From TrEMBL:
GO aspect biological process, one term: DNA replication
Name assigned to this protein: 3'-5' exonuclease DinG
Motif (DEAH box): 461-464
Function text: 3'-5' exonuclease.
Keywords for this protein: ATP-binding, Exonuclease, Helicase, Hydrolase, Nuclease, Nucleotide-binding
Length: 926
């Protein structure tokens, strides 16, 4: 018999029927034989007032339901509609539980049939979606969803979504469906029945294998044709600017000549050909990416040598590969290959995933993640985790699936051809352009078996982050959660984790030699207890020093009496770890001497233990350096969040000036290094940037190509004169005042606004002040660190909403590209000086003071000017953009250095005025 689906959506006066909330609209859409055959919807009188919030959200007012029937009058119709059907909803638990309460209240039987949650189904079948809200999925699938938050429109859109998801399910190969079916019993709705029906349907006819898929060892993958190596030499780089213009205009008829871009191309080509280094600032609108990619490809093809392009942000990496490389392929008269290369842990290990699929006991999170990956394997060409939208539990499970370079040939061998990281390496070996990030680049440069040429050609985009990335890469981090995770994975003998399996292997192979596990178990228990005590003590001390809810960074000095007890505990921990590591190494060595007799499962266990051993050694080294043997050239600090006592502690160490060492040891040995960014110049000089990298005396050519935009015609800057000086108020008081101006600006700009903060503490205070006021309830507010999701996901969600305001901290001051009307108003809450007590800032300032230099003018001010320029750069991304910049920090007008900030950005009109004048200007300008 054909399954009948009834797709339901409710609008209600609130979230809890038990607290008296009632339904104000019901809608049901009936699907049979994959066709919508019936629809039923009705407004319902709730017997209570509809709040203003619900009215604004749904468009349903007290007037709308004035003559509507009570639920009792329609309850039997609804019960008949859903009887015998599969109950479908987008977040089925809410709609069904609410409806059940109402049916029972009216004396009717509750619904006992199957349920299907389209949120859950979408997570499985669309594992790379940015989000799973109905309006997001409808937009992605081009579905009719004209009136979000009205039950009839939502139910109809959900029905269309279900039909699309069923099509996707039917297009999957039977082997994938069977794997999904086995895992689906751990889900919250009866998706197993839908998968079972699809398998039955597909088995009635011979399966036609998609030419886009290949199968191996019971898994289906997207077929990827690895491009062959090019051996032919290509045309010479066109020295004549007119020829370059003709090429560009041939590919893009609307392309406008940008003199700066052409000069940048010539300079980079000359630098590569003459093996010279260069520093280039290319302002917004110059076309920086194309400016370096075009000469890079010509050089790579001519000399058969790859050019490496490294960026700081993942967003720019993706932009280069998705937008700029396809443009370049249109322009050039020949083919070339550009690939993305990331750190190994970004890639899925197929050997580990195959093993994970055999495990029988799945909780909800692991089952869902496995199902997402099974579907993703039929779509992905890269196996890169960043493509996936995993739950937080899924992110944790990924740590067990990520590539870590399996040691044993028997584990690697079957998967070598398909392995994602191995494929990325092979492709990079043939590529003309290798796109990577600063973090991976530096990790790779520091390894013996490097993938990136030691003496090659390198473009460092977002180069102003080079010093920060270098210091971070040469540092160490230690946190409670990661060490506890390692200890839990290892376990003691009676916990039946990896140590138990190791002992069992030794026993089964007759290698115990009468060794007792009691001593090792005791040491592990002692270590776990002492480690807990160490972080509990550190968090207590940190709490005394920090009274903020927001994350706090505190400097750590070994000679500070506050930490004397921590040092004693750390010394015991280092001794215990040394002993534990030695015991594990002995056991591992016994088994490895008998490797030939071990099965595949045993080798997996040994590989897992080797990985954990490496992590334990890192932990020992970090504890030793942090508490016992700190280095003078390093900075030590702890990050603390008091919402999660010892769980919220992270210890960090990094060099004060790591980039100088890295330049002398590695970057300086490259044939040619091009450093570029939209913001490298401070006070019309590259000196600050060069000093950061220790390149003051290096003979590096420099060039600056300013933005071609006519900013005076595109931007107005407003500094409210009725806001107090930021230094005269506490964070809470200033946040209250700032909130009023932000609310007024948001209403004037109708959302489409970004608010930039320099501290998470002020962001939280301002965000909750605005949220609690209720004035912007009709606006969607996104806040970094509060709303959840990655930076890129936050940005995409921000652009998806009509009336949205985005609150951001450090990472949103740059690398954010929101062209057009999506961003029309930018608010900078305070000038971006780093707090003087921030450990990295304090250490750098102390070093400068020791050298007899003024730390404010040599470091604090230049750093703030660069960040202010980066923030300003978010507002205008194309020549057609218009926007208003509001600066809530009056020091830009009143302080001596205020003029430096004004001069740091292009010439624009500056205005001072009251909050009302600010509103008038925003409304008039945008």
């Amino acid at each position: 018999m054909t399954q009948r689906y009834v797709v339901v959506d409710l609008e209600t006066t609130g979230n809890s029927p038990k607290k008296g909330d009632r339904i104000i609209q019901f809608a049901g859409v009936v699907i049979e034989n994959d066709q919508i055959v019936d629809e039923y919807s009705t407004f319902i009188h709730p017997g209570q007032e509809i709040s203003l919030f619900i009215e604004e959200l749904t468009g349903i007012s007290n007037e709308t339901v004035k003559d509507a029937p009570d639920f009792e009058d329609v309850a039997e119709n609804i019960a008949r509609l859903i009887e015998g059907a599969c109950f479908v909803a987008h977040n089925v638990l809410f709609d069904l539980s609410f409806l059940q309460e109402e049916l029972v209240r009216c004396g009717l039987e509750p619904f006992y049939g199957s349920t299907l949650d389209t949120v859950e189904l979408a997570k499985i079948l669309k594992p790379t979606s940015d989000g799973y809200k109905l309006h997001q999925l409808a937009k992605e699938e081009n579905l009719d969803h004209s009136r979000p938050h009205q039950a009839d429109s939502d139910a109809y859109a959900t029905a269309l979504l279900l039909l699309e998801l069923k099509k996707k399910l039917m297009n999957l190969p039977v082997m994938t469906l069977k794997q999904l079916y086995r895992l689906s019993f751990s889900l919250q709705s009866e998706i197993s029945e839908l998968i079972d029906a699809c398998i039955a349907s597909k088995l009635t006819k011979a399966e036609v294998h998609s030419p886009e898929l290949i199968t191996f060892r019971g898994l289906a993958f997207k077929k990827v044709d690895e491009e062959s190596d090019y051996k032919d030499r290509e045309a010479e780089f066109p020295q004549d600017d007119e020829k370059k213009m003709a090429m560009l205009q041939n590919a893009f008829p609307a392309f406008e000549a940008r003199k700066g871009q052409l000069e940048m191309m010539n300079m980079i080509h000359h630098s590569f050909e003459s093996s010279q280094d260069a520093i280039i600032e290319a302002g917004t609108g110059i076309g920086k990416s194309l400016g370096y990619l075009l000469p890079a490809v010509y050089f790579a093809r001519k000399h058969q040598k790859p050019v490496v392009v490294s960026t700081y942000t993942l967003q720019l990496q993706d932009q280069l590969l998705q937008n700029e490389v396809p443009k370049l392929k249109k322009i050039l008269p020949y083919s070339f290959q550009a690939v993305l290369l990331k750190g190994r842990s970004n890639y899925l290990s197929l050997a580990k995933f195959e093993r994970a699929l055999r495990e029988k006991e799945d909780n909800y999170e692991t089952a869902l993640t496995k199902m997402q990956i099974l579907v993703w394997l039929t779509e992905t060409e890269t196996g890169d985790k960043d493509e996936l939208n995993l739950t937080s539990g899924g992110q944790l499970f990924w740590n067990r699936l990520q590539s870590d370079g399996l040691t044993y040939v028997g584990l690697k061998q079957p998967w070598l051809e398909l392995d994602f990281f191995e494929r990325a390496k092979r492709t990079a070996g043939k590529a003309d352009i290798i796109i990577t990030n600063h973090s991976f680049l530096m990790t790779d440069l520091l390894t013996e078996d490097a993938l990136i040429p030691k003496k090659g050609y390198l473009i460092l985009d977002e180069a102003h982050h080079l010093e920060q990335a270098a210091s971070k890469q040469l540092g160490r981090r230690l946190n409670y959660i990661s060490v506890k995770t390692v200890l839990n994975r290892l376990g003691t003998t009676d916990q039946k984790q990896l140590l138990y399996k190791l002992e069992k292997l030794l026993s089964n192979n007759g290698l115990t030699e009468g060794k007792s596990t009691h001593d090792l178990d005791r040491k592990l228990n002692d270590f776990a207890y002492e480690f807990e005590q160490l972080f509990y003590y550190i968090s207590n001390q940190a709490q005394k020093l920090s009274h903020s809810v927001s994350p706090k960074r505190l400097s750590f000095k070994i000679d500070d009496h506050r930490w004397s007890k921590a040092i004693l505990v750390a010394e015991r921990l280092v001794d215990l770890l040394g002993s534990i590591i030695m015991e594990l190494e002995k056991r591992l060595s016994l088994l490895l001497n008998n490797e030939a007799t071990l099965g595949k499962n045993a080798l997996f266990y040994l590989n897992d233990i080797e990985v954990l051993l490496g992590q334990l050694q890192d932990t020992r080294d970090s504890l030793h350096e942090f508490f016992i043997n700190p280095q003078e050239e390093n900075i030590y600090w702890l990050d603390y969040t008091n919402t999660a006592p010892q769980h919220g502690v992270t210890l960090t160490v990094q060099p004060i000036a790591g980039s100088k060492w890295l330049w002398d040891s590695y970057f300086g040995r490259q044939k040619s290094v091009i450093m570029t960014s939209a913001t490298l110049v401070v006070k019309d000089s590259f000196q600050y940037f060069k000093a950061q990298l220790g390149l003051d005396s290096e003979p590096i050519q420099t060039a600056r190509f300013p933005s071609p935009f006519r900013y005076k015609e595109l931007v107005k800057v407003v500094v409210p004169n009725d806001i107090p000086d930021i230094n005269c108020l506490s964070v809470e008081e200033f946040s209250e005042t700032a909130a009023n101006h932000i609310i007024a600006a948001a209403q004037a700009a109708k959302g489409r606004m970004m608010v930039l903060f320099t501290s998470h503490e002020m962001l939280r205070a301002t965000y909750f002040s605005i949220k609690d006021s209720g004035v912007l309830d009709e606006y969607t507010l996104f806040a970094q660190g509060i709303s959840g999701g990655s930076r890129m996901r936050l940005l995409r969600n921000f652009q998806n909403f009509e009336k949205a305001v985005l609150f951001g901290t450090t990472s949103l001051w740059e690398g954010v590209d929101i062209p057009g009307e999506d961003l029309s108003c930018l608010i900078i809450v305070r000038l971006p000086f780093s707090p003087p007590d921030e450990p990295v800032t304090a250490a750098k300032c102390q070093l400068l003071e020791k050298q007899g230099r003024n730390a404010f003018s040599a470091y604090s001010l230049p750093e703030a000017l660069l960040r202010f320029r980066q923030g300003f750069g978010r507002l205008i991304r194309t020549p057609e953009d218009r926007g208003v910049l509001v600066v809530l920090d009056r020091r830009i007008i009143t302080a001596k250095y205020g003029l430096e900030f004004q001069k740091s950005i292009p010439a624009v009109d500056w205005h001072q005025g009251s909050i009302n004048e600010m509103v008038d200007m925003i409304e008039e300008w945008i």
